[in-house]
Amino acid sequence: xxxxxxxxxxxxxxxxxxxVIALSVxxxxxxxxxxxxxxxxxxxxxxxGVRQAAEAWQLSAALFLWLDSVxxxxxxxxxxxxxxxxIATPVIVVGALVVVASLMTPAVLSLVAERRFPALERRxxxxxxTGLLGALGASVLALLAIAVSVPLWFIPPLVLILPPLIWGxxxxxxxxxxxxxxxxxxxxxxxxxxxxxxxxLAMGVLTGYLGAAPSVVWASGVFFLALAPxxxxxxxxxxxxxxxxxxxxxxxFSLAALQRLRAEQASGAAVEVLPARAGWRAHDAxxxxxxxxxxxxxxxxxxxxxxxxxxxxxxFGRGPGAGSPSxxxxxxxxx
Length: 335
Known about the structure:
By secondary structure, the chain is mainly α. Helix content is 72%, strand content 0%. The chain contains 12 helices and no strands. α5 (128-149) packs antiparallel against α7 and α7 crosses α9.
């Protein structure tokens, strides 16, 4: 938990970095251009199609009659655009995630690595195209999960649980690969994901809840059509900034975990090598003594070596007179 919170506040602080703010503008421009182009060509057709389908549906016809009875007939014109926005919002979220993962995440990761982990080795266990294909595949699965779970959204508790879980899973799958593809090897990436799967998924779910906040701004563009040209780009920029924060959070957490993993591996290797380098163990002493070659016998007529002088125990604070300022004169002098 401490590592999770540490990475959280670091990511929040990095969001104020001028380079991160500048990088968030590029995906914004691309997505605004795509949204404007799709809206220019398909908005009216999509709204008309939704309106015709709603009028042909008996349940929606009963809803329209009820709105007329309570004096809210003006809302009939807003239902079809709201449904179109409701359908387009998941596409915008997935597009933001893919664009940020492919364009912004490498730059943000380089910023984190340069400022906090300059000595961390890059082992390049992944590639750009593998990450892009994985992000696209996970995005397709997330969209299918969204489409299947839409009927459950009308149950009040589930509408606050299912979408963040799906976006959290998608963010976890995309970001956990992208932030480790350059620095970790394949084995290290799999080990880190295995160890921290719960924390990574929790980070993804929390960013999923943060990503739901701009939907209010996005939907308000339907009710305030005059401000829609301003509110819609603001909502897209908030989406981009949220996913940039997610990239920073995953980068700080994953690179710190990778650094700890390598430190553990290095300390384990040092412990294994240490006995071989020392070459000595306590129970090897009898074996070494038995295998030692005997000293050669002195030749005839050679002078014998003087006996070794025994150490004075009083010098080391032992024996009689230890700790006295001078030896006792009544004792015989040492040999």
